Amino acid sequence: MSTHAERYAAFRRRKSASSAAIEAFQGLYGFEFDPFQVRACKALEYGHGVLVAAPTGSGKTVVGEFAVHLALSQGTKCFYTTPIKALSNQKYNDLVSRYGSEQVGLLTGDNSVNGEAPVVVMTTEVLRNMLYEGSSTLGGLAYVVMDEVHYLADRFRGAVWEEVIIHLPESVRMVALSATVSNAEEFGEWLQQVRGDTTVIVDEKRPVPLWQHVMVGHRIHDLFAEPVEEETDTSREEDQRRGGRKRKRNRRGDDRSWRPREIVVGGQKLAINPRLSRIAEEDARTTQLAHRRRSPQSRARKNGTMRPRTRYAPPSRPTIIEKLDDEGLLPAITFIFSRAGCDDAVRQCVASGLVLTTPEEAAQIREYAETRCADIPPADLAVLGFEQWLRALEAGISAHHAGMLPTFKEIVEDLFSRGLIRAVFATETLALGINMPARTVVMEKLDKWNGETHAQLTPGEYTQLTGRAGRRGIDVEGHAVVVWQAGTDPESVASLAGTRTYPLNSSFQPSYNMAVNLVGQVGRRRSRAMLEESFAQFQADRAVVGLVKQLRKQEEALEGYAASAECHLGDFMEYAALRRALSDRESMLAKTRSVRRRDEALESLEKLRPGDIIRIPSGRFSGHAVVLDPGLKLDLPAPLVLTADKQVKRVNASDFTVPVHPSGRMRIPKSFSARSPRSRQDLASTLRNKLREQGDTPRAGRAPREVGEDEEVLRLRSELRQHPCHGCDEREEHARWAERYFRLHKEAEGLRRRVEGRSHVIARTFDRVCGVLDDLGYLTGDTVSDDGARLAKVYSELDLLVAECLRRGLWKDLTPVDMAAVAAALVYEPRRNDDPFPRVPAGRVEETLEEMVRLWGDLNDVESRHRVSFLRQPDLGFVWTAHRWARGDRLDAILRQADMPAGDFVRTAKMLGDMLGQIAGATGDPQVRSTARKATDLVLRGVVAYSSFN
Q1: Residue 500 clears pLDDT 50, i.e. is over it
Q2: Which of 142, 366, 658, 798 meets the CB 3.0–4.6 Å disulfide criterion with 76?
Q3: CA proximity to 260, closest of 247, 272, 276, 268
Q4: Do 632 and 617 contact (CB within 8 A), yes or no?
Q5: DSSP 3-state assignment of 237?
């Protein structure tokens, strides 16, 4: 325990690091700020930009909220940006509860509330669009908070973050909040380069310590072994009261005779629990024994793969939750990388009779959920399975994934945060931004489907997911539990838990919309220079620095080699070049001869017949053999032969350096079997007798003699002999230095190409994008055409296709229902199990879609000429669903036929509504504008139009 003097000294240090404004701000919170929060707030108060990289749940949003506080106290504006709408809604509610609805606004794709307020919460795309449009709302802007700024690594949306950072006015101070990344200093250097003075604050300490565990069968083991600690009754009671696990202190495992394996975590050596190591070895032996006991036929199935077996089968999901409850480890989030798996887990828990709430809590849950869903039509609630979902909620159990209705997800988030829901089964999307901490995080498996294959989790992903464990101010410690599966390796789990490598890499690249907006604002030359300031180019340049340094060293070495090769009789490098040219020519001719001989050998193998006696010139089975099967059914001839020493093997062209010519023939009995040792012995004996009858051992075929010398070789030899350096006494010494020169010169040229490939890569891509736009008439030099101005208003992967459809009038005579259907092809993101030939409405819709696909093909050809590829093919998977919804069909019939989760349907329909709004805003045709607006109204109805935002 610290003394009064030590506590007073700590108080003085905190006071000196703080300020009156920070003290007043801290008074709004119920806890004392951490040193990193105070440092960041002070830097912001002094007029610096700030980058804060800290673990999930550490309280870095306090720094963003201080920017809000400063803006309100100074009479300026602050924009608080988030990557997802749900997080924007959550942050808006937080700020409204603190500052009032008059001071705070919200702008997302779904909601527009008090957009001219001094503090506005918005998605990052909304701010990007404002910057390009020169919105008047930007007036008076002093601070921008970019929450979850590490999203700029996202390959689909990451470019938006860099666009905002680059294009924000210089007077705006930026607060960038990021998860812990291993290259935060590099990112901070870039921010200082493009935004001016920026303070980088990295804090890797979790506010709540995290314990790592592995659940084997029905027991929870600590992953790492630690010394036994003394435990008093008071400390044990305090741990249990504040969220500590009711655990036995057996940190060194059950068997002290085992030597624990160690790994290094944050510079500290930690030993893996030897009990887990022993379980892994026992499990491996069980798997091997099970494999041996299987029949050869079953082992050969499925290309030799086998289903792993384990003595320690994973417990059922209800059993896992019950065990966590017994250990005092709820509330918990169990990550299952499958939406269907999450829903199944909830059904299994409810079916098992698991209840984690009291009757009073269940009543609170029902009342809250019914109130939040009161505006959703009862018929739609029935289709969405509201009662089944609510029954699970009342038991304190729920799923959380993108396939759920957004309203349902937000209810789950609110109830979980209030401690009424105690077990949530979620996909990894929950780890992205939503403030939903738990006492425990459970990892059901350590691999997930990445769109192409089942891949192991990376250390960064593991850290992001387990970052949810441990509630600040509630729990004294958080817990991460990995469920033991067949093949689990404790060392691999420890490596995931101990690695802190999570680099932030840019995914930035120019787009057509970006190009016309930039050129229209500042011209092509200035646009090019601005894009060179991107983090992508910054990282490329940093990589180039090392290459350039290496290239400079090689160039210096080349000068030294050339000096050492100097000859008093003449230019030795010229002479060495002749020698090298002669050597290269002779090597090329040798390769040509080798290829020709191989072709001749292949041709000769194709002529072999069963019974031919041949001689194999090289390899393990060199010697005489008889052909059993010519092997002509394969791609290349590969005869099956029996050698004179009774070996059966298949030969190919690599065994014959020269063409093969049969030296005789012999009969192969019909009863011959290559698998029978007796048959092989008899036939080999017959072969040896046949060879003796032939007398001398037949000779292998010879390669044809080359006719004459190559003229180029003769010329080079003549020039060599006539060169002055040919008669130098030190010719071979000079030649050794020259050979070193040429080898290093080849390496240097490769490095130079790599440097050139990475230098100005973003600017070169921008030039190619502008080339496409020049060809199509959207740009002429620094001038943006009327069509280009329309393209500037379209923010989509298929921005150029939308602009071309508008220019060519493809949508001019469509009805609102048909317009909704064709626009659906521009926004739908296909899933793995989608129908490859989806249904589309006949008539005008089908004809228009065919025209759109043809037009995409034309644009793809233009892109190919300019060596870019940005436009994906329109996907028709949502067309029929959108058509039915726009014409007024019932939700239950649509979802049943589309086989689509309600959440996916609502999200895609909202994206469609946004696209129709962009079309209405971009088009210059009043008829198309009117049709698009009517189509928007048809799409944004019922459950799609309902906003869960309060």
Answers
A1: yes
A2: 142
A3: 272
A4: no
A5: helix
The per-residue pLDDT for range 275-317, each reduced to its tens digit, is 888 888 887 776 665 555 554 444 444 444 444 555 678 899 9
Rounded distance, CA 356 to CA 820, Å?
Answer: 45
Token pair in block for residue 544:
């180039």
pTM over 0.85: no
Q: Please list, in sequence order, all residues whose beta carbon lies within 8 angstroms of the beta carbon of residue 634, skipping any fewer than 6 positions away.
A: none
CA-to-CA distance for 630 and 640, rounded, in angstroms? 6
> What's the gap between Cα 900 and its chain centre?
25
pLDDT at 248: 46
Whole-number CA gyration radius for the chain: 36
Residue 942: predicted pLDDT = 83
Q: How confident is the model at residue 853 (pLDDT cuts 50, 70, 90)?
A: very high
How far apart (Å, rounded) are the C-alpha atoms in residues 77 and 120? 8
8-state DSSP, 34: P
**3-state SS, one letter per residue, for 704-743:** CCCCCCCHHHHHHHHHHHHCHHHHCCCHHHHHHHHHHHHH
User: Could you report the per-residue pLDDT of 377-434, keeping only the tens digit for each?
Assistant: 888 888 888 999 999 999 999 999 878 888 888 899 889 988 899 999 998 776 555 6
Number of H helices, E strands in the chain: 35, 27
Task: Find tokens 């090019």 and name the residue.
Answer: 528
**pLDDT at residue 430, as a whole number:** 65
- Which among 492, 488, 494, 497 is positioned nearest to 216, based on CA atoms? 488
- Nearest Cα residue to 655 out of 610, 700, 593: 700
Report the Cα–Cα distance between both ends of the chain, in Å, rounded.
47
> What type of residue is 56?
T
Q: Dihedral through CA 827, CA 832, CA 837, CA 841, nearest 10?
A: -40
| Torsion angle of C-alpha atoms 149, 154, 160, 165, degrees rounded to 10 | 40
| Residue carrying the six token digits 């009038």 | 809
Judging by DSSP bridges, how do beta strands 640-643 and 648-650 pair with one another? Answer: antiparallel
Which amino acid would we find at residue 145? Answer: V
Q: How far is the CA of 883 from the CAs of 182, 825, 887, 912, in angstroms?
A: 48, 11, 6, 11
Distance, in Å, from the CA atom of 546 to the CA atom of 383, rounded to the nearest integer, reads 60
How is residue 620 written in tokens? 């393990």
